[in-house]
Inverse folding.
């Protein structure tokens, strides 16, 4: 069914204007003109959004992204970035040369002293990557993953830092990475959104809030908003048929709406209206398909066991498995939030608990994708919005933005390597610094997109995910 | 204000008086003065100084140390040296600065450059010895006004142009190309500027560059470096440069630039920066069509394309459109009938006046305004806590209903607090300045958030009133518009006096009325007096404190220690969440109905040894009913049994339970003892209703508990009284005090304080000593009467303020200094401190040296000379009634905004609006009584072909209703809609657990009961991080940032909402009930009644057949399964009718659902 919504209309007009301004060739011109003549050529016979880019800029290495988002700020010093010097200096004053003039959160005005790593590290795999002993399963995929130890961000409080990690700016109202990607290259799924968000609670006590802003489409058309699959209640809001109405009756009401609308010559030709009818079909398909998607009954026992789940229970592990199922069905960007990494205190015990919650399933996901041949075109990213201070905050650590770690796997990433480094105390990224913009640029690059060319005009400016910055980190590409 | 822009072109000087618009770029050519006689000071020179120099260079300002209002000033010069060298014009600094090509150097700074004739005059005057009559002081010229004479038309101007096609307009045709492709490197941003070339400034573009080349030589593309470079065959040299990432210019763009240069390369200031003037009405052929001037402009455009307007819409369709547009609601069948029955002239206008007078008008108009100003019920950042500012929302609704002129509306919001004798309402309106996003996050740095708030306010005010992208100049000068980073911070400085704590809870201000004020002031004064009394130092108190400190230090033990929970769970699905900050645990319900009884299990770890007693504290919490601590509607709870287990799961024997609750008594069903009697099903420790206090249950352990370094304990709290009498917030403490342990009525010193007291007085810090003193004043027996009096006064105040209005309003403080932050970096303090000022290229605010205020800003925004405000507002109003703006970029009328389709119409409306006294209802009336508005939205195929996006307005637009109207429409059709106005925001049904990701504290959405469930969408609680999802599905914004235009998407979530959200299912079943009661007896009568109600028309035969089939089929199904019918009839809070056949009701509910899901129902026709 043809679809001509407001956003498409706006898009067509953009094309028109640009076409008249004489843009052509590599830009949007040529294909856009075709679309003007016959929108069906570009928007085919389904509701599926195929992306605003007529062609990718570079050969893609990944078709989709799974972002295992560890919210709260996991400590790089206990997980991926071992600092023996910090251990030696445990409880000694933090040298002022490290911290002078730097932004600081809750440790404002306090005496800063070093706090040694609370857990031992081990070398793993043939690559000998150094990873915390808390993460034996992730250790077992050491040769698949690239650890980046030199990430930096610009926001030191949770909420703005999440917004920065997702949108490349601290200002609300800008599109998140998932929305950009869906908008840019479209979705593969016929009955699922292109950008799905999953959330799980941890068992600890520091549940920093997460705002729907993190998967917002900002100024992009609202159809590119991430859809939150909830772990409790209906997976998607308003998915369940109302009380006292069978699925068949629901079908018949939808059929009646369609028949009533089509019986009016004045309405049936309105593309907005026919698009609405097709959205009813899509909604009905979602009502049918999503419950089966979240029902793991068709998964073999050994797969369930590898993730450490029995059924969809809203846990991080269950969401990892659900992420794989969504990836299989053509969802472009899947983001799993797992909360509770905000270890201001008692980090030794609590981070061990967190690690247990995520270690097995994170590794199982990578192995599962690999075994299915999907790892090569699925980019997996594991990390939070910032790291934690080498300085003690009681028996915990404060927020830290000047150097922290994430890892990536699959989708064109070189496995078994460590990229970048922090200084000897794990404070400042000093080698091969990677900014959040660089991370975004690299992610888009792997998806075949030049980050400087995926833009949207708003307030008179061509906005992009990477603002005016961002460099592809070529050293970590396979 | 400055209304002159003087632009130089190749030969003649062209003076552009401040008039504008596309139609009327007011170009007045003046002749170069004859070059014979030397200039006369009074006649020739003084006017130039008066108009262009002395504003900044006079006694009061003397910028750069220079005065040009007296002869001495001129001769003494300023910081850079003497301004003139008598007899040597070209050797004078004055001349040099007048001719500087760098705009940062060139004078006058705040106005366009002088005309070359004027420069010539000054030059010859200096050559002549710069004669200045004794004692003459040059005063500022009064602001020049727009000349009344009509400017020469474009046609007249084009007569002289070369006849190779239509004359190109710089603004319409050329500037967009330059802005899109060139300004990034050759525009306002001096950091990025290449080779000294600016293509946004005529004087630089047409002058010799450092390289000696000239970018634009009027009349001669071949000599123009610009043209040579965009057509350069050498790929490396061709512009835009490859490194810019820009695409090459297309042939059409190159041709446009070529022709424009050939035609003389005439420059225009950006259209929206020139004050609008009222253009003449264009001539039209179909003179009988226009009903008002709007139509003349529209029809002229339609006729130019050889098209005709569409016929007037049928009356029911027209009234439906008008009702949605003016009130946000569909018309009732009676209203439609009345309109159809009125055949006298003016019938339509009477409908317009009726709807404009309806209180629903304000509710409808408020929604887009609230989007602009980002009104919401929560603070936005991090924990997104609630705030009380709904009175501002009601103020906006009331302002539209009272037809408050827009200039006053503006002044009240930006500066209501500064108005003389500000009324309570004006103070509430000033809440605008408090609507920004704020934070309560621990660890947020005040300085950073001050910078964030300043930027937020600049972005908002500049977008709301100026539709400008000033917000983009936070880190650097703007790349396309003339905004400088300095403009950003100077604009922000207007708000530097708004009191706003950077981090923390937003406490509402009390707004007592006249009758309440004396009592409140009296009690406040008394409280202040008593507090002072409490703090007063006396020798007696000092001595008493000394003794008290010693006794405190000698305490063998440490009182109570709060136990730190490590894990919490519940038996029946209550979500029990650990709170990091005070170790308390908060209970909410994640999904499904709230469990009426539950058992919480909480595991604790502690290093205490030899614990003798445990204390369960029930804590108050504002999110709980009546403030808690319990979850039942009165804030009460019953703890049937408190069990404490050791690490092995063994029960620790407890005894001697005491409690602070008023009804505690031994043996009664509700007594502390019943909570440790080993029975989990009967009574227990209870609080019947919230009393604003925290309560405690204390029970002794029979044997001391805990011996190792770490002891694990598990508390199991059984709460089986039912009716949700469970704890909402609680925590557990333990003590090592010797037995017996009782609840203490007084206050207890904390462990910290005891440790301080144990220290030697000399080794305490001042803060430590202060803490001790503060605490002592709370317990000293000598001060007991003062404390009692203080508590009594506070209770009196609490009683008083219950009746007093509260809202976030603006209060002033000493302005914080505002610095330019280099690259927006708040840690960098090297930037210059700025005073409040409006963007430098717009008319100035004249205050005579006084610091400009928010009130000055408001007056400036609505001054008739402001080129933007009126245009911005009427453009947005146009969008409401025609589906898109005349310029569709409602948020940006700057150089990157869209060129309006009907610039003359936009200007006409803007001038009309200002001259009408900023009369909003009058503007709306003009728009909706036009013939343009009344056209049918059914587009003839030719029209769709020729004008697919309806930019000619040869038909009306048909579009999906806004989120609130979708909701209000369904409720109105069903008859459920409440007409109650104003008041605290309400909670329509929301899926359970939608707020699960809010924390600090966790919160729970309680569906509003009774009429509040059916209030209009505008009254819905707006939680920024998780806004009402049924509204979000229809593109309601989160109100975090200014939204000038909601997107209008078409997504499956909308179908899911209309099909499955209880709001719509309930509306359908109540609609069905009314159909059965009021629609007659026969099915076809009932259908007809339903259609008239929902769509203002009768169903066609085909429609009746389709719905008849559905009715029959579902009737049969429900007859076979009446249980489902009953379940359907029970959806929502509305009473279930007992007297109707539930099967018939269910079948008609299916019909009603089909109708409410029709695209036609949610479409404004």
């Amino acid at each position: 069914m043809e679809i001509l919504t407001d956003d498409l209309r706006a898009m067509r007009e953009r094309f028109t204007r640009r076409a008249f301004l004489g843009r052509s060739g590599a830009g949007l011109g040529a294909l856009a003109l075709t679309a003007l003549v016959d929108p069906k050529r570009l928007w085919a016979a389904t509701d599926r959004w195929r992306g605003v880019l007529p062609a990718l800029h570079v050969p893609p290495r990944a078709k989709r992204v799974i972002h295992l988002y560890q919210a709260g700020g996991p400590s790089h010093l206990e997980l991926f970035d071992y600092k023996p010097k910090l251990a030696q200096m445990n409880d000694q004053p933090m040298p002022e040369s490290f911290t002078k003039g730097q932004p600081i959160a809750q440790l404002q005005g306090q005496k800063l002293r070093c706090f040694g790593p609370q857990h031992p590290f081990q070398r793993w795999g043939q690559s000998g990557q150094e990873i915390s002993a808390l993460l034996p399963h992730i250790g077992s995929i050491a040769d698949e993953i690239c650890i980046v130890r030199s990430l930096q961000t610009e926001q030191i409080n949770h909420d703005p830092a999440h917004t920065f990690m997702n949108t490349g700016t601290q200002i609300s109202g800008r599109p998140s990475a998932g929305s950009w990607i869906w908008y840019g290259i479209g979705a593969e799924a016929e009955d699922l959104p292109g950008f799905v968000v999953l959330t799980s609670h941890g068992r600890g006590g520091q549940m920093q809030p997460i705002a729907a802003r993190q998967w917002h489409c900002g100024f992009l058309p609202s159809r590119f908003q991430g859809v939150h699959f909830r772990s409790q209640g209906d997976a998607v809001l308003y998915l369940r048929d109302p009380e006292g109405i069978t699925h068949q009756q629901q079908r018949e009401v939808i059929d009646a709406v369609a028949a009533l609308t089509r019986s009016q010559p004045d309405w049936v030709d309105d593309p907005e209206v026919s698009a609405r009818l097709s959205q009813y079909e899509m909604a009905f398909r979602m009502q049918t398909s999503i419950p089966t998607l979240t029902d793991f009954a068709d998964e073999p026992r050994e797969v369930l066991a590898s993730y450490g789940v029995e059924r969809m229970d809203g846990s991080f592990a269950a969401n990892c498995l659900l992420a794989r199922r969504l990836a299989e069905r053509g969802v472009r960007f899947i983001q799993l939030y797992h909360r509770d990494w905000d270890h201001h205190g008692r980090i030794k015990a609590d981070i061990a608990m967190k690690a247990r919650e995520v270690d097995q399933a994170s590794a199982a996901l990578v192995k599962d994708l690999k075994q299915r041949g999907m790892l090569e075109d699925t980019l997996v990213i594991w990390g939070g919005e910032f790291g934690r201070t080498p300085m003690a905050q009681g028996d915990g650590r404060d927020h830290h933005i000047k150097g922290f770690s994430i890892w990536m796997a699959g989708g064109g990433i070189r496995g078994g390597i460590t990229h970048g480094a922090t200084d000897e105390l794990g404070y400042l990224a000093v080698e091969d610094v990677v900014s959040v913009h660089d991370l975004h640029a690299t992610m888009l690059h792997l998806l075949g997109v030049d980050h400087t060319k995926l833009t949207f005009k708003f307030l008179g400016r061509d906005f992009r995910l990477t603002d005016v910055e961002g460099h592809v980190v070529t050293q970590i590409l396979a | 204000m400055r209304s002159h822009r003087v632009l130089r072109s190749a030969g003649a000087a062209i003076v552009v008086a401040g008039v504008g618009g596309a139609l009327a770029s007011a170009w007045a050519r003046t002749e170069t003065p004859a070059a014979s006689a030397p200039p006369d000071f009074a006649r020739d020179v003084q006017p130039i100084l008066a108009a262009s120099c002395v504003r900044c260079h006079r006694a009061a300002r003397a910028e750069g140390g220079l005065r040009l209002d007296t002869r001495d000033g001129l001769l003494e010069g300023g910081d850079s040296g003497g301004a003139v060298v008598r007899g040597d014009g070209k050797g004078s600094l004055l001349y040099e600065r007048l001719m500087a090509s760098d705009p940062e150097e060139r004078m006058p700074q705040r106005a366009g450059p002088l005309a070359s004739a004027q420069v010539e005059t000054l030059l010859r005057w200096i050559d002549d010895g710069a004669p200045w009559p004794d004692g003459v002081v040059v005063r500022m010229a009064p602001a020049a006004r727009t000349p009344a004479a009509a400017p020469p038309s474009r046609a007249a101007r084009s007569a002289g142009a070369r006849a190779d096609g239509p004359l190109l307009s710089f603004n319409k045709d050329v500037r967009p190309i330059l802005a899109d492709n060139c300004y990034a490197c050759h525009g306002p941003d001096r950091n990025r500027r290449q080779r000294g070339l600016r293509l946004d400034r005529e004087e630089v573009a047409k002058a010799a560059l450092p390289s000696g080349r000239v970018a634009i030589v009027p009349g001669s593309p071949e000599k123009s470096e610009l043209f040579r470079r965009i057509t350069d065959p050498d790929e490396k040299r061709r512009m835009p440069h490859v490194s810019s990432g820009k695409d090459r210019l297309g042939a059409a763009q190159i041709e446009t630039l070529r022709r424009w240069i050939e035609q003389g390369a005439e420059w225009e200031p950006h259209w929206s920066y020139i004050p609008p003037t009222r253009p003449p009405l264009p001539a039209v052929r179909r003179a009988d069509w226009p009903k008002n001037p709007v139509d003349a402009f529209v029809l002229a455009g339609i006729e130019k394309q050889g098209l005709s307007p569409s016929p007037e819409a049928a009356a029911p369709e027209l009234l439906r459109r008008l009702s949605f547009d003016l009130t946000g609601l569909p018309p009732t069948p009676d209203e439609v009938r009345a309109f159809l029955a009125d055949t006298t002239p003016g019938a339509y206008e009477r409908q317009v006046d009726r709807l404009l007078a309806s209180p629903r008008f304000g509710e409808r108009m408020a929604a887009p305004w609230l989007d602009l100003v980002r009104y919401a019920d929560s603070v936005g950042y991090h924990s997104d806590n609630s705030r009380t500012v709904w009175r501002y929302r009601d103020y906006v609704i009331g302002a539209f209903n009272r037809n408050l002129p827009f200039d006053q509306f503006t002044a009240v919001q930006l500066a209501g607090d500064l108005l003389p004798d500000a009324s309570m309402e004006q103070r509430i309106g000033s809440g605008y300045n408090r609507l920004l996003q704020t934070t309560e996050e621990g660890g947020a740095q005040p300085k950073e958030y001050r910078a964030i708030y300043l930027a937020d306010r600049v972005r908002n005010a500049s977008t709301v009133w100026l539709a400008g992208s000033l917000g983009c100049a936070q880190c650097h000068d703007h790349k396309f518009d003339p905004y400088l980073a300095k403009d950003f911070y100077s604009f922000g400085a207007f708000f530097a006096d708004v009191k706003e704590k950077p981090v923390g809870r937003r406490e509402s201000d009390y707004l007592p009325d006249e009758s309440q004020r004396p009592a409140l002031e009296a009690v406040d004064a008394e409280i202040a007096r008593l507090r002072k009394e409490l703090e007063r130092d006396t020798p007696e108190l000092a001595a008493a404190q000394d003794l008290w400190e010693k006794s405190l230090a000698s305490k063998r033990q440490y009182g109570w220690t709060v136990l730190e929970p490590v894990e919490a769970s519940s038996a029946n699905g209550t979500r029990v969440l650990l709170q990091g900050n005070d170790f308390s645990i908060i209970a909410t319900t994640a999904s499904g109905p709230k469990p009426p009884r539950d058992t919480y299990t909480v595991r604790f770890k502690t290093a205490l040894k030899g614990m003798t007693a445990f204390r369960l504290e029930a804590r108050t919490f504002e999110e709980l009913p009546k403030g808690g601590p319990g979850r039942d509607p009165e804030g009460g709870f019953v703890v049937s049994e408190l069990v404490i287990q050791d690490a092995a799961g063994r029960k620790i024997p407890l005894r001697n339970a005491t409690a602070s609750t008023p009804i505690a008594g031994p043996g009664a069903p509700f007594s502390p003892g019943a909570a440790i009697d080993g029975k989990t099903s009967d009574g227990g420790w209870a609080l019947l209703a919230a009393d604003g206090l925290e309560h405690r249950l204390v029970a002794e352990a029979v044997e001391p508990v805990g011996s190792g370094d770490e002891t694990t304990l598990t508390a199991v709290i059984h709460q089986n009284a039912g009716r949700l009498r469970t704890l909402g917030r609680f925590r557990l403490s333990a003590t090592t005090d010797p037995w017996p342990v009782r609840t203490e009525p007084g206050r207890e010193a904390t462990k910290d304080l005891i440790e301080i007291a144990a220290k030697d007085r000399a080794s305490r810090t001042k803060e430590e000593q202060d803490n001790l003193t503060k605490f002592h004043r709370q317990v000293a027996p000598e001060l007991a009467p003062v404390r009692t009096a203080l508590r009594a006064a506070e209770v009196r105040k609490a009683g008083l303020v219950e009746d007093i209005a509260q809202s976030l309003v603006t209060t002033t403080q000493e302005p914080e200094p505002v610095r330019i932050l280099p690259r927006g970096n708040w840690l960098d303090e090297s930037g210059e401190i700025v005073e409040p000022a409006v963007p430098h290229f717009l008319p100035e605010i004249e205050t005579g040296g006084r610091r400009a205020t928010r009130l000055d800003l408001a007056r400036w925004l609505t001054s008739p000379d402001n080129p933007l405000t009126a245009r911005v507002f009427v453009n947005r109003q146009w969008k409401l009634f025609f589906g898109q703006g005349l310029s569709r970029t409602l948020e940006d009328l700057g150089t990157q905004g869209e060129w309006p389709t009907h610039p003359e119409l936009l200007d006409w409306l803007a001038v009309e609006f200002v001259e009408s006294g900023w009369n909003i209802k009058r503007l709306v009336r003009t728009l909706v009584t036009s013939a343009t508005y009344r056209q049918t939205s059914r587009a003839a195929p030719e029209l769709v072909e020729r004008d697919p996006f309806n930019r000619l307005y040869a038909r009306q637009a048909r579009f999906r209703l806004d989120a609130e109207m979708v909701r209000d429409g369904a409720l109105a059709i069903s008859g459920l809609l409440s007409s109650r106005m104003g008041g605290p925001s309400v909670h329509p049904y929301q899926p359970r657990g939608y707020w699960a990701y809010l924390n600090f504290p966790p919160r729970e959405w309680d569906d509003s009961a009774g009429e509040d469930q059916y209030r209009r969408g505008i009254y819905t609680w707006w939680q920024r991080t998780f806004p009402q999802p049924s509204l979000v599905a229809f593109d309601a914004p989160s109100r975090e940032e200014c939204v000038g235009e909601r997107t209008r998407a078409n997504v499956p979530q909308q179908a899911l909402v209309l099909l499955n959200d209880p709001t719509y299912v309930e509306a359908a079943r109540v609609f069905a009930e009314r159909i059965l009661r009021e629609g007659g007896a026969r099915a076809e009568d009932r259908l007809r009644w339903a259609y008239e109600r929902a769509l203002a028309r009768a169903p066609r035969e085909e429609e009746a057949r389709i719905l008849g089939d559905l009715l029959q089929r579902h009737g049969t199904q429900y007859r076979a399964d009446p249980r489902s019918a009953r379940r359907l009839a029970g959806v929502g809070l509305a009473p279930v009718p007992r007297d109707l056949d539930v099967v018939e009701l269910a079948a008609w509910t299916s019909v009603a659902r089909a109708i409410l899901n029709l695209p036609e129902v949610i479409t404004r026709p």
